[in-house]
Amino acid sequence: MPEQQADRQEQASRRPSAPDRDRETVLDDLARSLHFRDFIRRHRWLDVTYRALVGLVGVLVVLGGFALIPLPGPGWLIVFTGLAILATEFEWAERLLRYGRSRLRAWSEWIKARSLPVRLLFGAVSLAFVAALVAAYAAWQGVPGWVPVIG
Fold this sequence. Notes:
Number of helices: 8
């Protein structure tokens, strides 16, 4: 009986407080109900291995996202996904993710507040940058064979 009471107290201490529950995700709830993180944390070598793997995967995703930022597509989304992966295990990554999201919101609000000509100018500059990257790649590597020949 004392063991059951100790188990209940331990489970209650692991439950997040009210402010933390607001930031909880479905994955947090699932992880807590499956107790897999508790199992991993009880075994030092497994915990270190798990954190190293999460760190490696997160860093690879972030670096892949950074490589895609100048190209059309989801570069920043991939960077934020990598940070979210890292934030599952590292407090610094969670702080960086929160900061990045707040900066992205501020940038979005700033752009929305600009007039249509200014937004079109930003779009044109971005398009010119991507076109310059494509032209530089074509000059460096040549035109890929899958590009149809016109004329």
